[in-house]
């Protein structure tokens, strides 16, 4: 398809670009039970692939692919498949995270074009999109205020936090999502991957508290440590996990019956899946509430 690349703005043959990296969707399917994906806004449909659009030219798509490959092999697969919790990263990590935030930002804005927002809000998003784009193209050497933060997610074995939904482990370990979240003083781009949250800053009144999650421009390490989430962010996480649970409750009964039948016919595959493992974590934490 001929068009204008959303990143470099050149006219070119556009590629179908995945907003959540393609390898993530493949991993979710491979480690699931049925080999399909369901979007929470279309629970009545089984999908073979995740959201994609004709967005980038071949050169820009190749840039993203290179950073994704590094992240997949050095961080994602070791964390998600092997349970490793420490990984070193190079300059590709800040580029990868910035690309995820840029993709989420441009995608969400394209879907909410009719939404009425204040001039200040739209200008903040414009500036963020422009600066992230220049950083990805090598025209800016620093992210400045648009820091990228990564939060590794592990199973919740115990917590003092009340009101967690009984699918919180499945949300942490399995769900993909994109959003722009915040208020008048703090605004973030939210990209949810299985086992990871990438939070791109648009504006924030106090970033010093979040230093432990900040991704360095050149190199650094992802490892267990004390992370600080922005004020109110845990409430947002709970709401989103609950929304996923509520949406899946609306799956047509005939599809639920088909799913149950598939499990009965493929018990070994179901029991060895990462989806069943995440479900077991929720059952260990919440008991019969997982069957609501």
Please, could you describe this protein's structure?
It is a single chain. With 292 residues, the protein is of the alpha+beta class. 43% of the residues lie in helices and 20% in strands. The chain is built from nine helices and eleven strands. The protein has helices spanning 22-30, 58-82, 91-111, 119-136, 168-174, 233-248, 253-265, 267-271, 274-286; strands at 2-4, 11-18, 37-39, 42-47, 52-57, 87-89, 148-152, 177-182, 187-193, 196-203, 220-222. The strands form four sheets. Strands 7-10-9-8 form a four-stranded antiparallel sheet, with helices on both faces. A three-stranded antiparallel sheet has the order 1-2-5. A hairpin with a 6-residue loop joins strand 1 and strand 2 (11-18).
Task: Write a concise keyword list for the protein shown above.
alpha+beta, 3-stranded antiparallel beta sheet, globular
Secondary-structure blueprint of this entry?
Blueprint: E1 2-4, E2 11-18, H1 22-30, E3 37-39, E4 42-47, E5 52-57, H2 58-82, E6 87-89, H3 91-111, H4 119-136, E7 148-152, H5 168-174, E8 177-182, E9 187-193, E10 196-203, E11 220-222, H6 233-248, H7 253-265, H8 267-271, H9 274-286
Antiparallel strand pairs: 1-2, 2-5, 3-4, 6-11, 7-10, 8-9, 9-10
């Amino acid at each position: 398809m001929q068009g204008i690349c959303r990143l470099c703005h050149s006219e070119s043959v556009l590629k179908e670009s995945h907003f959540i990296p393609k390898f993530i969707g493949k991993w979710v399917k491979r480690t699931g039970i049925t080999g399909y994906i369901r979007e929470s806004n279309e629970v009545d449909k089984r999908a073979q692939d995740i959201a994609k659009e004709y967005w980038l030219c071949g050169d820009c798509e190749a840039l993203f692919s290179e950073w994704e490959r590094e992240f997949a092999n050095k961080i994602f697969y070791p964390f998600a498949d092997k349970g490793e919790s420490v990984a070193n990263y190079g300059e590709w990590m800040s580029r990868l995270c910035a690309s995820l935030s840029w993709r989420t930002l441009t995608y969400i804005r394209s879907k909410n074009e009719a939404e009425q927002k204040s001039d200040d809000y739209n200008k903040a998003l414009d500036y963020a999109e422009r600066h992230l784009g220049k950083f990805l193209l090598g025209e800016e050497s620093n992210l400045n205020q648009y820091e990228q933060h990564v939060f590794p997610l592990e199973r919740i074995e115990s917590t003092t936090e009340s009101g967690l939904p009984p699918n919180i482990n499945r949300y942490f370990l399995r769900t993909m999502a994109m959003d722009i979240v915040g208020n008048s003083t703090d605004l973030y781009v939210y990209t949810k991957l299985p086992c990871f949250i990438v939070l791109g800053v648009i504006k924030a009144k106090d970033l010093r508290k979040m230093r432990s999650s900040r991704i360095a421009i050149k190199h650094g390490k992802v490892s267990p440590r004390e992370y600080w989430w922005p004020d109110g962010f845990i409430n947002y996480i709970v709401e989103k996990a609950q929304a996923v649970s509520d949406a899946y409750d609306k799956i047509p009964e005939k599809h639920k019956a088909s799913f149950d039948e598939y499990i009965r016919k493929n018990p070994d595959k179901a029991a060895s899946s990462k989806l069943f493992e995440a479900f077991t974590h929720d059952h260990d934490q919440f008991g019969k509430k997982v069957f609501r």
